Amino acid sequence: MALTPDAHFVLNDGYKMPVVGFGTYAPPERYPKSLAEESTKVAIEVGYRHIDGAFIYGNEVEVGRAIRAKIADGTVKREDLFYTGKLWSTFQTPELVRPAVEKSLKSLEFDYLDLFIIHSPVELKPGDDHFPTDENGKAIYNNTDIRDTWKALEDCKDAGLVRSIGVSNFNKRQLELILNKPGLKHKPVCNQVECHIYLNQAKLLEFCKSKDIVLVAYSVLGSSRAEKWVDANSPVLLEDPVLNAVAKKLSRTPAQIAMRYLLQRGIVVLAKSYTPERIKHNFQVFDFELSAEEMKTLDGLNTNMRYIETKQVEKKRWQDHPKYPFNDAY
């Protein structure tokens, strides 16, 4: 596949996913929602046609407004864009799935979502509290059979509310549970996971490719370093000396090298920035190529280190969930 600004993967249901997406998550305690709206407009103007959102980001109203503004001014048509929404962990019981889709549709003011994915296999207690905890501050879990949740997603696809359905943060075993589900109607088109030079997901990528499932990478530039999720002592990916040496050699930014590395491995990349200049630079990954030697050098940076779920307090809170995905090797 030639990597050009309009490059895309044909998903296993026939729809097309652009290979570079614009991420819209930002820690709400650090960034006003208006920034999501303005940066999404910039991203579309620059050339992004893949927008990655989620209910739990709390900014679908603003992102939808930005998208509709760019449609209204003639920059794009709705069919030019690929929008991803996500099913939050308190909505996994089957009767809550369709209302969750409809809530995102209403916030965005869309007729359909291009992709709707299960945000995480970890399920929390259903209800209006999106991070339910007990009197000791411990998360309150739920444990719906993920195959029942998947059936509800299939129904949303069949109803035309969403075009494609997939998952996020699933390990191989959890993917197989869905793939081997009796009466499976629609395979997951993708698995969106943390993936970068320090966590290159080689084994999971190989498995997903063998099942015609696209691997979509988040935190490709490290992470937003939100205090709730990420250890402040973790290394800053874009400061990595090896990555910077390759970037200097090719007269590129470290972010461009980090993204191109994943693209050349057949991975869809999501990049987020609220700075117009960086949004523009992060999309300029199509006019150069990493050599086999440079790819091998970057392969050597893998340490299987996760940014997300690295804080010990979070590990203790989530790791005992029966569907916690990161205890498996991949």
From TrEMBL:
Site (described: Lowers pKa of active site Tyr): 86
SUPFAM superfamilies on file: NAD(P)-linked oxidoreductase
Residue stretches in coiled coil: none
Binding site for substrate: 119
Alphabetically ordered keywords of this record: Eye lens protein
Keyword Ubl conjugation in record: no
GO terms assigned for molecular function: oxidoreductase activity; structural constituent of eye lens
Keyword Nucleotide-binding: no
Domain of life, per lineage: Eukaryota
Annotated catalytic residues: 57
InterPro entries hit by this protein: AKR, AKR1C, Aldo/ket_reductase_CS, NAD(P)_OxRdtase_dom_sf, NADP_OxRdtase_dom
Name recorded for this polypeptide: Rho crystallin
Taxonomic source organism: Pelobates cultripes
